[in-house]
Design a protein that fits this description.
Layout (H helix, E strand, L loop, with lengths): L20 H9 L4 E3 L1 E2 L2 E2 L9 E2 L8 E7 L2 E6 L11 H7 L4 H19 L11 E3 L4 E3 L6 E2 L4 E10 L2 E6 L11 E4 L6 H13 L3 E12 L4 E10 L13 E6 H8 L15 H11 L5
Parallel strand pairs: 1-6, 10-14
Antiparallel strand pairs: 1-4, 2-3, 5-6, 7-8, 8-9, 10-11, 10-12, 11-15, 13-14
């Protein structure tokens, strides 16, 4: 069974230490403590393609406590950056070189950094908030409101019809790339309702029997991707040109060819660390309806 990207860090997040100033000081004084090296928000890799780590003395300003790696404290710098909302394409090449565990560790650090940079001020009274809970929150010194990192739920789904699945592409995708359709879950909406709404809005198709498959954190900037498969009542499409440049129905053989990197495949598959790749891999391996 394939696993999703940005999972499998295997760290003890040690939540019980985040408010313990004495224990945190001891962790930072630990000679084995390591600081994740970042280039802005992007990962820095060593000569062997692994995450690069340094000493805590390299940090300037606040640090984010990532957790314990077999007892070794891991931290990341809190980076002040103007590069928020930047498309992920620039780091995809690096991610293709990284192990899944390294990608998961870096992904958590990036998401935390993105959240801090987007929540510098208290949303209640507007006062500049300060970092607390070892980087896992911000607190207002004026009104006392506490703010914590959040993830935005996003459904990503395959609509299935007579042994084929619907794939689409947006204009910013690399040439030939097609993927599963996706969209944010809206307030007052279930996962199943979000899947049905997004497929109707983007492709004009009605679906039923929504089935959950798996999930993935996505650190651009901080989503929880919820992968599903749904049964389409028809294969007739009505595309929303504001959302999709193109879409088509792909067979299992076509999906398998794309996942294998076959140059004769009708589309280029999403990268392995994207949950759309996992979703297509699992769907293409299910021969129960063939």
């Amino acid at each position: 069974m394939s696993t999703t990207g940005f999972t499998g860090a295997g760290l003890d997040r040690a939540d019980h230490l985040r408010l313990d100033a004495e224990q945190l000081a001891a962790l930072m004084a630990n000679g084995e403590a390591r600081l994740l090296r970042l280039a802005e928000l992007d990962p820095v890799l060593d000569e062997e393609g692994r995450l690069a780590w340094g000493a805590l003395a390299e940090a300037e300003g606040d640090m984010l406590f990532l957790g314990l790696d077999e007892g070794v404290p891991l931290f990341a710098p809190l980076v002040r950056t103007e590069a928020l909302g930047r498309r992920a394409w620039s780091v995809f090449r690096l991610l293709s070189l990284m192990s899944q565990r390294d990608a998961a560790i870096w992904g958590a650090a990036r998401s935390l950094n993105e959240w801090h940079n987007r929540h510098l001020f208290c949303s209640v009274c507007g006062t500049a908030a300060v970092v607390f809970r070892a980087g896992w929150g911000r607190k207002c010194p004026n009104c006392g409101a506490e703010h914590f990192p959040r993830v935005d739920p996003v459904v990503i789904m395959l609509a299935e019809h007579e042994g084929r699945v619907l794939l689409g592409r947006q204009p910013q995708y690399p040439a030939g790339r097609y993927s599963a359709l996706a969209g944010f879950v809206e307030p007052g909406e279930s996962i199943e309702e979000a899947v049905a709404r997004e497929l109707m809005e983007e492709a004009g198709i009605a679906v039923r029997d929504v089935r959950y498959v798996t999930s993935q954190p996505w650190p651009f900037p901080g989503q929880l991707m919820i992968a599903c498969i749904a049964s389409a009542e028809s294969d007739a499409l009505r595309l929303d040109a504001n959302e999709l440049e193109d879409a088509f129905w792909a067979s299992r053989d076509e999906v398998r060819a794309a996942l294998a990197g076959d140059p004769a495949a009708p589309f280029q598959a999403p990268p392995p660390f994207a949950i759309a790749n996992t979703l297509l891999t699992r769907w293409s391996a299910d021969a129960s309806e063939e």
